[in-house]
Design a protein that fits this description.
Elements lengths: L4 H8 L7 E8 L2 H7 L7 E8 L17 E10 L9 H15 L5 E4 L3 E6 L2 E14 L4 E10 L24 H22 L5 H6 L7 E5 L6 E8 L5 E5 L2 E5 L5 E4 L3
Parallel strand pairs: 1-2
Antiparallel strand pairs: 2-3, 3-7, 4-5, 5-6, 6-7, 8-9, 8-12, 9-10, 10-11
The chain binds biotin (BTN).
Length: 262
């Protein structure tokens, strides 16, 4: 059911003025819809019950069950050029995890560059995906930050195990409460990021990093997989991998990270 904007505003409290929210029953993709609204002010939010062409990273589609997910996008403007926005999607992940924990969520971790995972009996399952798309002109940059969050795991064939908030200690959570908590934390984190860059959020991200100091493999289409010890991330959001030839910085988000085989 479409979100009630008055209820959401009440939950946003003093921060309600920062956001202009549009709740849709259906759209192709909340990111695409927001990208089409070129003059939308910073703080514009589109939340949709159902996406007909939800998009994920690396050209993938994002599947979600309408009654069991929260799918929304937030537009945020920065005075910086896109080159200075390294680590933005990691900062968004840290804000998301923090908001879920404030609501009582448990077992939530982060995977580089921008997945929220849930610890399960068999390892980790994907709880949420983040897709940040940037557009810029000469003196500013806008980020469309899309988040797809499972309230319960989606049904159907999935590329990787999926989890829902119902398994994270938040069964039946109200979507107004959930969205308001995430937007409130995003406003705080994005302001810190705008002022001091990812360095200001790095510790919050790394504390929840599921592969911290563990052996991993980085898969890049066509390239030989890189294996090493995952040292975390640097102040630009690059992944630090200790390999036999020294510490390598991985900047590209177009790679897959897997636990190394023992
Ligand atoms: C990923 O893990 O690949 C990123 C998934 C991002 C999905 C969200 S759902 C809301 C927003 N609209 C989209 O089309 N994609 C993002």
């Amino acid at each position: 059911m479409r979100l009630d904007l008055a209820l959401l505003e009440a939950r946003l409290g003093e921060q309600a003025g920062l956001f202009t929210v549009d709740a849709l029953a259906v759209c192709d993709s909340t990111n695409s819809e927001l990208l089409r609204r070129a003059d939308a002010p910073s703080g514009s939010v589109i939340v949709a019950d159902r996406q007909t062409a939800g998009r994920g990273r690396r050209g993938r589609s994002w599947l979600s069950t309408p009654e069991n997910s929260l799918t929304f996008s937030l537009l945020w403007r920065f005075a910086d050029s896109p080159a200075r926005l390294g680590g933005l999607s990691l900062a968004v992940g840290a804000a998301l995890a923090q908001a879920l924990e404030q609501l009582g969520g448990q077992g939530i971790g982060l995977k580089w560059p921008n997945d929220a995972l849930l610890a399960t009996a068999d390892g980790y399952a994907k709880l949420a995906g983040i897709l940040v798309e940037l557009a810029s002109n000469r003196d500013s940059c806008q980020a469309v930050i899309g988040i797809g969050l499972n309230l319960a795991p989606p049904a159907g064939e999935l590329e990787q195990p999926a989890a829902g908030l119902d398994q994270a200690g938040l069964p039946g959570i109200d979507r107004h409460i959930l969205l308001a908590a995430i937007l409130r934390q995003l406003a705080v984190t994005l302001d810190r990021f705008a002022q001091s860059g990812f360095a200001a959020v790095r510790a919050d991200w790394q504390r929840r990093h599921v592969w911290q100091n563990r052996p991993v493999q980085i898969l890049d289409a066509g390239a030989t997989p890189l294996t090493g010890l995952c040292l975390g991330v640097d102040d630009d959001g690059a992944l630090l991998l200790e390999t036999a030839t020294g510490v390598q910085r991985i900047y590209s988000g177009d790679v897959s990270l897997r636990p190394a085989k023992p």
